[in-house]
Amino acid sequence: ESDTASEVSFQFNKHKKTPSIGSHSSDMASVSSVSGSVLSVYSGDFGSVDAQGTVEFALDYDEKNREFQVHVSQCKDLAVVDEKKGRSDPYVKTYLLPDKARMGKRKTSVKKRTVNPIYNEVLRYKIEKMVLLIQKLNLSVWHNDPLGRNSFLGEIEVDLASWDWSNRKLNWYPLKPRSLSAVNGVDHRGVMNLSIKYVPPGSLGKMCPKNPPSGEVHIWVKDVKDLLQLRPSGVDSFVKCYVLPDTSKKSYQKTRVIKRDTNPVFNHTIVYDGFHTEDLKDACVELTVWDHEKLTNHFLGGIRLGLGTGLSYGISVDWMDSTQEEVAFWQEMMSAANEWIEGLLPLRSL
């Protein structure tokens, strides 16, 4: 059924105690390295102020240095966030979409106490022109809050495939409210075809030689369809798997790399033992797809299989955020012991 059957012994007992927040800090911090920088793209307060005003910027591509340049000049008539003090502390942030994780964000400095900030800053991306032309530029303006609750002030999205590259002049553009799809992080990243199964402790009977003394979760990653193509040569993809809250090497598994294919077939099975039935409500299987390159790997999308309660062993965690489809898939596995549950789940930004 699969090219590889990885079996990982896994124990949750250390998480069942009631720890202090400090004792879990290393586990929680390591989750961000798995999820990547995309967590911040939709963070913040979207509803407190209405988008208004304009932004002046220019776009250019430096052929010699293979560099995309966004010249952010200034903004005018931005919304006031702190009405009591009559102030906003705005900055401009850019992403290349849909590939937020690979290219990362760029942002200007913060200009304090003004709704008419002047930046005159250039935000730069090292990227091939052919790859750039299948991206969109998302430029947004934010109020900087010292406590981290930054407020969204407006955005503009530019389709770079239809951009007039002979136009290098600074131009004014109206800031728009964030669309519902952008707030929810809805962007097509592909679909994963997989099956999962839970084998409870002792459920196969005493006569079965493979009867597990503790429960097992089986994950069969079959294939992925319609991956993002980040460069002309295609995608060299592989799948990582963790069982959160454990992000140690014991939990980490991965498939082989499938080269130059946006519809890779992995046919890879992973078995985690050490699962008791009560662990299923507090654990989360995170499957992420990555594009492999020599210097670094680039996040393409992922899924998280769990109950999506926001809690793990009584501790609030940001990774227990499964979608309705992912929760339903996990619940079906929990209610159908020893049966393979098949699913086709969309990849998303984690």
User: Which oligomeric state applies?
Assistant: single chain
How many helical elements? 6
Number of DSSP E strands: 19
Radius of gyration using CA atoms only: 23 Å
- Which outline best applies? globular
- Shape-level CATH architecture of the largest domain: Sandwich
The arrangement of helices and strands along the chain is EHHEEEHEEHEEEHEEEEEEEEEHE
Largest β sheet strand count, sense and barrel closure? 5 strands, mixed
Tally of domains: 2
Q: End-to-end span in angstroms?
A: 29 Å
Helix content: 10-25%
The CATH topology of the largest domain turns out to be Immunoglobulin-like
Widest beta sheet: strand line-up: 1-14-11-10-19
Overall pLDDT level: 80
Q: What share of residues are in beta strands?
A: 35-45%
Which CATH class of the largest domain applies here? Mainly Beta
Global structural class? mainly beta
CATH-level-4 superfamily name of the largest domain: C2 domain
Which ranges are low-confidence, i.e. pLDDT below 50, for 5 or more consecutive residues? Answer: 1-5, 13-47, 180-186
Subcellular location: Cell membrane
GO molecular function: neurexin family protein binding
GO cellular component, one term: exocytic vesicle
Organism: Thalassarche chlororhynchos
